[in-house]
Sequence to fold (447 residues):
Amino acid sequence: MANGDISGYRNDEPSPNDLLDREKIARALANTVQVCETPLVVGIYGSWGTGKTTLMELVRKKLEGDKVPTIWFDPWRHQFDDNPVVALLHTMVDKVVDRKRGKELLTAIASALTDSVITAAPLFHELSDFHAYKAEYEESLFEVRERRVQLRESFAKLMRAATNDGEVRLVFFIDDLDRCLPKSILKTLEALKLFLNMPGCVYVLGVDREALENSINTTYSDRNIAEQYLDKIVQVPFTLPPVSTGSTIEFVRSLLPDGLHDIAEDIVAGLGTNPRRIKRFVNSLVLNHELAKQTFADQAYNAKLLAALLVVQYQRPKLYRRLAEDRLVLLEGAELDKVDAGTANDPMVRRLVTEVERDPSALDGYVFLSTVAGVRPVEFDVVVTKVGEYRINVIKVIREHSDIGLKEARDLVDSQPPILVASGLSRAAAEELVEQIRAVDGQAEIR
Fold:
């Protein structure tokens, strides 16, 4: 948003530019993909909004600059297909395989994938029924085995055609797999393991590992299977490192109009370094900023004060609701921690307190703006404020949610409240966890 232009509100699409100083990471991954043995699966792990897609785009750009063919696939767009793997292969055929030959092989693969289930036969009542059923069942099993062999052969032919018998390296980028329904996730992962692991092929998965593991565990009704399952598929795991504070501040400045550059550090201090969260916040801030310039036309307007209030609205909704009703709640000193733990030492809150101490009505215009065009969080943390008498039950709830060991859960529960027990949850998931903690006589809040 150069020259104060406010037309550049940011959407959630990945940035085509490296605004988070991840050039070195992209180059290292691109080099790895070009020299590794094949087949190979690389997993890029990161939570919501941390820049997985942007990093994958940077890697793809470098590979294409080195003349390495790449295929980009978004499985969630095809999760309601009978088999999303066919859509992946269609994408590949459109780009790197002779269309006529590719279509023939795709037809064979789609046909084989459609018919692989033996339906249950009715109960038999006589021995002759049993023998007839047994013969039919064995014939069906033979047909299924034969079809699976043909399926494997068709996959192999198609992948050999795409990679010139393994001589050409082909890199697949599979993004947002964790957004799919569990059934679609498993179909894609199992295809990677059973059919697509052909010489010359490298697969780069961009996923939220925790969300993916939850889907796997849900499918198999086993909380301990996901890690082993993924380890058998992903040979090179890479967890996206946190963005440095300095890089994030520069990123925020690139989003802000010229007149707001000096509040970039405040935004990062208040919100952390999640790029997508920051983009959404900045969109609301810029809109509030433009409204404020009109609302405070004849009065002094403090952009830092507006930013502080919006950070509080985003990070401390409980306190925000109280101060929106009564600004004097900010003058309660240490009692503020009873409204929202940790509030008294929050620099954004202290900025608001100072202003209300000067003039109890100083925030009125800012609060009005924030209620009209404020920020609405899409990720929530859960904090235990009191463990209660049934400590063991609270430990059990935390272990079931986070999948941590018994010792870690005990240490967490024995620490001084407020205790952060989950972060980055949806509103529904956060509310469910709070209810589970309260059901065992603990006290918890959503932040």
